[in-house]
Task: inverse folding
């Protein structure tokens, strides 16, 4: 835990985390959609998990590009 990282490495790690959160959000959304007809409770849980990953993405995006979400009226852009 005492590793020292420079700003570039920290930014790479944040972007990697943001990309991972985007992948997880997509996976949970797909799962929620596939469960809707057969397991409504499971679909709700999957949708909740997708929203949690979306929140993580928003926080990491705000770190990388402060104020960007406000300028784009909340339209999600992952780069």
Result:
């Amino acid at each position: 835990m005492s590793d020292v990282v420079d700003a570039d490495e920290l930014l790479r790690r944040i972007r990697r985390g943001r990309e991972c959160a985007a992948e997880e959000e997509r996976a949970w959304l797909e799962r929620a959609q596939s469960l809707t007809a057969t397991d409504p409770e499971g679909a709700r849980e999957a949708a909740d998990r997708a929203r949690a990953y979306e929140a993580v993405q928003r926080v990491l995006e705000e770190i990388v590009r402060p104020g960007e979400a406000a300028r784009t009226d909340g339209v999600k852009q992952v780069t």
Remarks:
- Residues 20-65 form one domain.
- The first helix runs from residue 7 to 35.
- The helical segments are 7-35, 40-64, 68-71.
